Amino acid sequence: MQTGTLSKIQTRLAGGEAAEAFARDLLAGLSSTPRSISPKYFYDAPGSLLFDRICELPEYYPTRVELGLLSGHAREIARQVGPRAEIVEFGAGSLRKVRLLLDAMDRPVRYLPIDISGEHLGAAAQVLRRDYPGLHVQPLVADYTRHMLLPALGEDAGQRVGFFPGSTIGNFTPAEALHFLQMAAQVLRGGALLLGADLVKDPAVLHAAYNDTQGVTAAFNLNLLVRANRELGCNFDLAQFAHSAFYNAPLQRIEMHLVSRRRQQVRVCGRCFEFAEGETLHTENSYKFTLDGLQALARQAGFTPGPAWTDPQKLFSLHWLNAPT
Ligand code: AVJ
């Protein structure tokens, strides 16, 4: 069998399993109080395009500021990374970010992007192979929130450096974030982690970033219902749910919800759910950090914090975290 055929079958199987997991999680989330669903379901193909548009919005500073930190401190970061290093990226993220890292590095040997979805990974890997002929690109389809086994570091290789940009860590609860960092400390033993984390700041700046005037973030949030209608045959009436995003200061997080505009019933996988007027489906938490708070969390997971880079306005941070030996 041709490898193309095999990967198509695997994709189809994964699609079926993915739809089943979405159905299971949505039913469980609608049955719990308060109602919630994991933000990982935002990222179908239309959702990923909407997220790309969010990253270009004037109000959404994280992507722009993080790219600025990566390019502005590229030499210092490359010095920390050292020669012939291997990059392990958690999530098949934006190629733009890892390129900034690779371009500054001294002879990077291998790039291991890890993602739960194989589709995104394969395409990204091909592009990087073409542009970095000396680089060994080895994508891994895995759930990086669980413990996993990575191929051994090459004998001639420098250190293994994890890369987790975008403040994706902010989607985890504090307990999940600690668990992720503990897992990363194991996998990166003897190396380090380069982590991007969004910072606590004026709530008005945060509010604007998640309530853009063009309504892209609202469309991104509502796309979850579009996806449920298409993939699971639900009948969410999009006009009857509103985007809501606000800063929960005591919990240091942006919360996104879909708010029912009136009392209504929705059919989900053959079951009927009633929403009261104003009742919400909690779709995302995006935790914000202080520099000290992030470093304390990293220490708790076994890392020894090195340099942290931030912009003059202290909007976003990049952390060098040395893994245990
Ligand atoms: C990809 C999780 C970092 O929390 O800012 C953007 C997702 N949600 N706008 C974030 C998101 C709404 C983003 N992360």
TrEMBL record:
Residues 22-322 form the Histidine-specific methyltransferase SAM-dependent domain. The keyword Methyltransferase applies. Its EC number is 2.1.1.44. InterPro entries: EgtD, EgtD_Methyltrsf_superfamily, MeTrfase_dom, MeTrfase_EgtD-like, SAM-dependent_MTases_sf. It is an enzyme of class 2 (transferase). One of its GO terms (biological process) is methylation. One of its GO terms (molecular function) is L-histidine N(alpha)-methyltransferase activity. Keywords: Methyltransferase, Transferase. Pfam families: Methyltransf_33 (PF10017). The keyword Metal-binding does not apply. PANTHER family: ERGOTHIONEINE BIOSYNTHESIS PROTEIN 1. This is L-histidine N(Alpha)-methyltransferase. It comes from Rhodoferax sediminis. The lineage of its organism: Bacteria, Pseudomonadati, Pseudomonadota, Betaproteobacteria, Burkholderiales.
